[in-house]
Amino acid sequence: MTPTILPFWRAMLADPRRIGAIAPASRFLCDAIIDEVMSSRPGHVIELGAGTGAITRALFGQRAQFDSLAAVERSPHLAQLLAHRFPGLAVHPVCASRLDTLLKGPLDTISVVSSLPFRSLPQGDRKQIEQAILRLSRHSRTFRFIQYSYLGRLPFPVDSAHPLQWTRRRTVLGNLPPATVWVLAHHHR
Fold first, then answer.
1. Which of 61, 67, 88, 102 is in the most buried spot, having the most CB atoms within 10 Å?
2. What is the Cα–Cα distance from 21 to 28, expressed in whole angstroms?
3. Has residue 118 got a pLDDT over 50?
């Protein structure tokens, strides 16, 4: 049994809507996320909804190539677990709606990796987090928001006139359930 599974199940049983998954991210999904992060200069990397650290472990292994690495995990118990598992990682036990307060800009490049279950979050929480993402995107010259979703569904809609637009990158069948990796980035017409 992986070291992430027991804490994951405890958290899921305590608050299933905020976890939004039936298992931690697979190594195949972690590899797909890392491939996307490393597809261009990552800059400052923030992980949202780090949970038990499945994707954090993959990011932590690449941290020498980042300007900085931080994790956001709302659950105090899981945040403490992350801090213990990844010494030196900046772990912020706050809601993702405070994302835009974590980095002081302007910065050259920001990459956000998210495991947040946007489709199962309460609408008010989801809107606050979406607004924080859009505010943070204004703090950098290059901004990427990497998110996975299930059933190939768009994580959350953005207005077609907005400068940030979604691009579907790949579907990972070796995840439970299969996951699609999306990138929200500046759209150049």
1. 102
2. 16
3. yes
Q: What is the pLDDT of residue 21?
A: 52
Domain that holds residue 75: 5-186
The pLDDT confidence band at residue 3, using thresholds 50, 70 and 90, is low
User: Is 124 a residue whose pLDDT tops 90?
Assistant: yes
HEC string of the chain? CCCCHHHHHHHHHHCHHHHCCCCCCCHHHHHHHHHHHCCCCCCEEEEECCCCCHHHHHHHHCHHHCCEEEEECCCHHHHHHHHHHCCCCEEECCCHHHHHHCCCCCEEEEEEEECCCHHHCCHHHHHHHHHHHHHHHCCEEEEEEEEEEECCCCCCCCCCCCCEEEEEEEEECCCCCCEEEEEEEECCC
Peptide bond preceding 106: is omega within 30 degrees of 0, i.e. cis? yes
Tell me how many domains the chain contains.
Answer: 1
89 contacts: CB under 8 Å, gap ≥ 6: 56, 60, 69, 70, 71, 82, 83
pTM for the complete prediction? 0.88
Q: Report the chain's mean pLDDT, rounded to a whole number.
A: 89
51's tokens: 């949970």
